[in-house]
């Protein structure tokens, strides 16, 4: 497991939220995949990323069953976590009409690590259609 700094611990372990428009992947549209910062499980591809203008990276789908949804304690929002290690990623919203999939995974940049397409081997690029 990766050693996290204090702010990463706050977001990933204590379900904190980075300030809007502050994260390194908010306005970032390179081709590649986004993996969990804690365990490096692939979570999202650049294909699913779109501009939600909300201040956090937005994805309209996740990879396989690697992102798990959990109802918040207040029952109002649905939290998303890494299905492998349980790290907090953000929240998922549906019915907003941003894309055809009508789903927005609103994710903290700090929960993710981006791996550019040219760092992935051929079979992974094929798997993720990159
Ligand atoms: Zn993880």
From TrEMBL:
Catalytic activity entry: L-methionyl-[protein] + [thioredoxin]-disulfide + H2O = L-methionyl-(R)-S-oxide-[protein] + [thioredoxin]-dithiol
Keyword Metal-binding part of the UniProt annotation: yes
Pfam family, one: SelR
Protein name: peptide-methionine (R)-S-oxide reductase
Cofactor requirements of the protein: Zn(2+)
GO BP terms, alphabetized: protein repair; response to oxidative stress
Domain of life: Bacteria
Documented EC number(s): 1.8.4.12
Molecular function terms, GO-annotated: metal ion binding; peptide-methionine (R)-S-oxide reductase activity
Organism: Helicobacter trogontum
Residue ranges constituting the MsrB domain according to the UniProt record: 1-117
Enzyme category, top tier: oxidoreductase
Record keywords, A-Z: Metal-binding, Oxidoreductase, Zinc
């Amino acid at each position: 497991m990766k050693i996290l700094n204090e702010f990463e611990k706050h977001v990933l372990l204590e379900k904190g939220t980075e300030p809007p428009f502050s994260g390194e992947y908010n306005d970032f549209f390179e081709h590649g995949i986004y993996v969990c910062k804690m365990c490096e499980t692939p979570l999202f591809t650049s294909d699913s990323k779109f501009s939600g203008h909300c201040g956090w990276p937005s994805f309209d789908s996740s990879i396989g069953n690697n992102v798990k949804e959990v109802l918040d304690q207040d029952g109002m929002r649905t939290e998303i976590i890494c299905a492998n290690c349980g790290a907090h990623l953000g929240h998922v919203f549906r019915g907003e009409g941003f894309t055809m999939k009508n789903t927005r995974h609103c994710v903290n940049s700090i929960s993710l690590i981006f791996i550019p397409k040219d760092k992935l081997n051929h079979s992974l690029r094929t798997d993720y259609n990159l």
